[in-house]
Amino acid sequence: MRQAERYRLIVERFAREMPEPKTELSYSNPFELLTAVILSAQCTDKRINAVTPALFAAFPDAATMAAAGVEHILEYIKSVSYPNNKAKALKGMASKLVEDFGGEVPADMDSLLSLPGVGRKTANVILSVVFDRPAMAVDTHVFRVAERLGLTTGSRTPEATERKLTAMIPAEVLGRAHHWLILHGRYVCKARTPMCGGCFLADLCRHHEKEHGKAQVRGQSL
Q: Is residue 132 annotated as a catalytic residue, yes or no?
């Protein structure tokens, strides 16, 4: 199957099966989402959603978080991964927002990347979810699922995956495609035990095709 055809069919299948995908992080404004995404690095959304209500109540905006000490912020996020580093990042992010952006989350990549704790993945989430820009955030789920499905081939870095997906997926569905791939990787195409038997993309999947072929060879050799 040619790659363009694979992309077309997979996008159509996702659009049918998951017409309105969205982030599983809980938030009510751009500052809260930015905070939650920074916290979510190497941590589950479920854990982040458990700690952010108290965190947002204590620090409802960039100004209040910027004015707080790192130790005060740390009290609210001790149960997440790497809490010390993340507390420092949140303090720095909030301070930068207040100093350079009037306390508001900026809407362009370069400005977002200037914020402590913000890399391309986080910036792309904000651009896509908050500002409805055609952006593709690549986390471990997106990186893995794109390679297994055959949307990428031998991709070595998240940025290489981002470039390929952005070039091949129509801009009008790119934001949804980010959620499609994350959710598929989280609940179906799991890292260690992909649920190929119940996957609506199995007939289009390069990984499944290879594994199915190996199983046939093993069966013939018995």
A: no
Q: Is the distance from CB of 189 to CB of 148 less than 8 angstroms?
A: yes
Radius of gyration for the chain, computed over Cα atoms and rounded to the nearest angstrom: 20
Give pLDDT < 70 ranges for the chain: 212-222
Q: How many helices (H) and strands (E) does the chain have?
A: 12, 0
The full DSSP string for 42-94 is TS-HHHHHHHHHHHHHH--SHHHHHHS-HHHHHHHHTTSSSHHHHHHHHHHHH
Clarify whether 46 is annotated catalytic.
Answer: no
Question: What's the rounded Cα separation, in Å, for the pair 13 and 185?
Answer: 15
Find out whether 145 and 177 touch, Cβ atoms under 8 Å.
no
Query: Where do the domains of the chain lie, and which CATH numbers do they carry?
Result: 3-20+137-221 (1.10.1670.10), 30-129 (1.10.340.30)
pTM of structure? 0.90
Catalytic member of 86, 91, 96, 121 = 121
